[in-house]
From TrEMBL:
It comes from Candidatus Annandia adelgestsuga. Gene3D superfamilies: Bira Bifunctional Protein, Domain 2, Nucleic acid-binding proteins. NCBIfam families: asnS, PRK03932.1. This is Asparagine--tRNA ligase. InterPro entries: Aa-tRNA-synt_II (IPR004364), aa-tRNA-synth_II (IPR006195), aa-tRNA-synth_II/BPL/LPL (IPR045864), Asn-tRNA-ligase (IPR004522), Asp/Asn-tRNA-synth_IIb (IPR002312), NA-bd_OB-fold (IPR012340), NA-bd_OB_tRNA (IPR004365). The gene is asnS.
């Protein structure tokens, strides 16, 4: 008897009347007075459960009557067409082996009733058993797979940049130090080390040799931000391309996003369907609209002009030179344009040292891509490839030239224009799924004061 995944049944890969084995967990059970039980079983491979008919003649029928949500089972039986209207297939069980009971004296946290997402976070070890988290897990897996596949098909090489670093990419103070001793000499690495905030600087070294590269992994920020869009550990896709400028990464990132939207609609249809029925009925419509229209592209100065006129709406007042905060992002994407937008050419004072200075001497060739409801999902720039200007920027920001010696070497030895971006993976999933809190989009969220599990 062939062991199969439940998804094979729903994808019509199993012939009717085949004898099959499935292994999984009980979602629900209904005992009929007519001498049989209906078990609804899932194995995580598909959002749909499979209904099992267990007749009284099965030798351990009395045990079957005691099965509860969460018990694990192995079922051997025949796949048949269901006479019920709710599902196409069911399994007529010959044997049901009970693999693991749910302890009767403890109440099972993932009971059948609807649980809030915040409660589910408190049982993060059990929450993948819910429909919602299993849907998210499969979509997350698929997007991750599709990112690798798309970039491979387009000639990008995956570079595994280090997680332990000693050079601060973003120049911010939000670092998780991993030092064992106060003085540098006695430290494991004999200098201050921390978890990476971005693999970009290391990635640039490989872009300046392999031309088209990317990295995709966890990134760490010790920002004390308790919002629905911030994690202390999040996943970032970073892409870096030599011989390219700001306009090129506008195009590359838009194409990549649209490709992912297209594929997720195509390949994750049953999971997207679940989200449409339970989270937001407009998911597919929204993604299709984005696929079929060009993202709006404006300069920072134009964005400020639009926002300045609406300053009375905002808690943080806007002026040329100010940051564009979440409330402004949402006004631009939700109210003004009602679509994703790419903002280009930010003031140099509010952006990182490595961004290429524009001819106006005031702005840098940076871009952020903002999405309705979520805000910024992508941040990127053309990198400063001219050593003399890079050195001026380092000086202006009080960074030591010697700390950046290897990064500066790239500008000394065959420098090239190059550009790249970072995409916040959980924020992308938030936009696609319509789930607002990114703590629900990573298996074990880490946030200030919270690293349980
Ligand atoms: O804009 P950021 O800080 O860009 C960089 O780190 C560049 N070095 C990337 C590059 O050019 N290679 O971060 C990139 C993206 C943001 O747009 C956002 O989507 C996400 O990472 N992000 C976060 N996501 C979740 N939690 C946080 N605390 C995040 N901080 C940034």
């Amino acid at each position: 008897m062939k062991k199969i995944s439940i998804k094979d049944i729903w994808n019509n890969k199993i012939k009717i009347n085949s004898l099959i084995t499935i292994k999984g967990w009980i979602k629900s059970k209904r005992n009929s007075k007519l001498g049989f039980s209906f078990l609804s079983v899932y194995d995580g491979s598909h959002i749909n459960n499979i209904q099992i008919i267990a007749k009284k003649k099965i030798s351990n029928y009395n045990d079957i009557l005691n099965l509860t949500t969460g018990c694990s089972v192995e079922i051997k039986g025949k796949l048949i067409l269901s006479i019920g209207k709710k599902q196409k297939y069911e399994i007529n069980a010959n044997t049901i082996k009970i693999i693991g009971w749910v302890y009767k004296k403890e109440s099972y946290p993932i009971s059948l009733k609807k649980h809030s997402n915040s409660f589910l976070r408190s049982v993060a070890h059990l929450r993948p058993r819910t429909n919602l988290i299993s849907v998210i897990s499969r979509i997350r897996h698929f997007l991750s797979y599709e990112i690798h596949s798309y970039l491979n098909d387009n000639g990008y090489y995956l570079i595994n940049t280090p997680l332990i670093t000693t050079l601060n990419t973003e120049g911010s103070g939000d670092l998780f130090y991993i030092n064992t001793k106060k003085d540098n000499k006695n430290n494991f690495f004999q200098k201050k080390a921390f978890l990476t905030v971005s693999g970009q600087l290391h990635l640039e070294t490989y872009a300046c040799a392999l031309s088209k590269v990317y990295t995709f992994g966890p990134t760490f920020r010790a920002e004390n931000s308790n919002t629905r869009k911030h994690l202390s550990e999040f996943w970032m896709l970073e892409l870096e391309k030599s011989f390219s400028n700001l306009k090129n990464i506008n195009i590359i990132s838009e194409k990549l996003i649209k490709h992912l939207f297209k594929k997720v609609i195509e390949k994750c249809d049953s999971d997207i369907n679940f989200l449409s029925n339970n989270i937001n009925c407009n998911i597919v419509k929204k993604l299709k609209k984005d696929i079929n229209s060009e993202f709006i592209k404006i300069n920072y100065s134009e964005a400020i002009e639009i926002l300045y006129k609406k300053n009375k709406l905002f808690n943080r007042k806007i002026f040329w030179g100010s940051e564009i905060y979440k409330e402004h992002e949402i006004y631009l994407t939700n109210n003004y344009f009602n679509c994703p937008i790419i903002i280009n050419n930010y003031p140099k004072k509010i952006k990182a040292f490595y961004m290429r200075l524009n001819d106006d001497n005031k702005t840098v060739a940076a871009m952020d891509i903002l999405f309705p409801n979520v805000g910024e999902i992508i941040g990127g720039s053309q990198r400063e490839e001219r050593l003399n200007i890079l050195d001026l920027k380092l000086k202006e920001m009080n960074f030591k030239k010697k700390d950046y010696w290897w990064y500066r070497d790239l500008r000394k030895y065959g420098t090239v224009p190059h550009s790249g971006f970072g995409l916040g993976f959980e924020r992308l999933i938030s936009y696609i799924t319509g789930i607002k809190n990114i703590k629900d989009l990573i298996p074990f969220p880490r946030t200030p004061k919270s690293a349980y599990f």
